[in-house]
Amino acid sequence: MTIYFWNSRLLILDQSLSTLPHIHHYVEIIISIEGTFRILIEDNWIETDAILLDKDVSHQLTGSNREQVVLLLEPETITAEALKNKFLCESAIFILDKLVQSETKHALKNLSHPTATPEEANRTLALLIKDILGILPTNKLFDPRVKRVLAELRSSPEKKNIRELSRLVHISESRLMHLFKEEVGIPIRQYILWARLMKAVNAIVAGNSFTHAAHEVNFADSAHLSRTFKRMFGKTLTEVFGSSKNISIITCED
Fold first, then answer.
1. Positive or negative, the Cα torsion across 48, 137, 91, 3?
2. DSSP string covering 101-136
3. Does domain 144-242 have CATH number 1.10.10.60?
4. Rounded Cα–Cα distance for residues 120 and 110 (Å)
């Protein structure tokens, strides 16, 4: 398994990727490099070579013996907004058959090679998004108060609660909750939990123990952190990070 981490994106490449049913707050693109895969959504099995899922869609992935790619995007990002606006206005899923070009799939496959670089990952993701959208999306302008809250939660989610954040941007707690949900599309309490989980994952990627990562972001213990991770990703921390010889982790800049 190869994993690329950005501040607001996560790219996973693996052979025969399978998960338990799970739900998370990322907008997700799943691609099979060759052939198809099967995915369970609302009691219906779908077989496809590429699919787009909105945030908060429960799903279970059954891999084949072929390499698969999973791209997770924080929903307030420019790319996620563009994908939702184009494909997810009437449904929480969209089949992307035939949209991803063979050249792009080949470039994605190359990202699992040990010599692949973060720069190659950035270029390949740009190719992928251009295949799907036709163009690269332009910036979305957030309310300045929401933008500041997002920045605070990315830097230190374990130290922030709604009361502190509302004081920071000089609005009431109820107004902040409404504004955040309207702009980002996720209740702020769910986003705070998600931001804490992502910071814990980054700590593990940096070489810290599960226990240290859990305490750093105020989870009760490593078991609490692992349960939250499994609920959102369908795999335990040990399954993903427990065997360093089987996983390559690369950090990137947006």
1. positive
2. -HHHHHHHHHTTSTT--HHHHHHHHHHHHHHHHSSP
3. yes
4. 9
Q: Give ranges for CATH 2.60.120.10 in the chain.
A: 2-133
**Chain length of the chain:** 254
Comma-separated ranges of CATH 1.10.10.60 domains in the chain:
144-242
Which ranges of the chain does DSSP label H, i.e. alpha helix? 78-87, 102-110, 118-133, 144-155, 162-168, 173-184, 188-205, 210-216, 222-233, 237-241
pLDDT tens for residues 82-96?
A: 999 999 999 999 999
Cβ atoms within 10 Å, residue 161: 12
- The secondary structure element, H or E, covering residue 31 is strand 27-32
Which CATH fold topology does 2-133 show?
A: Jelly Rolls (2.60.120)
**Residues 22-32 pLDDT 10s:** 888 889 999 99
Which residues contact residue 42 at a Cβ distance below 8 angstroms, ignoring those fewer than 6 apart? 58
Q: ∠238-243-247 over CA atoms, to 5°?
A: 105
Angle at 36 between CA 34 and CA 37, to 5 degrees: 125
Handedness of CA 244, 218, 78, 253 (dihedral sign): negative
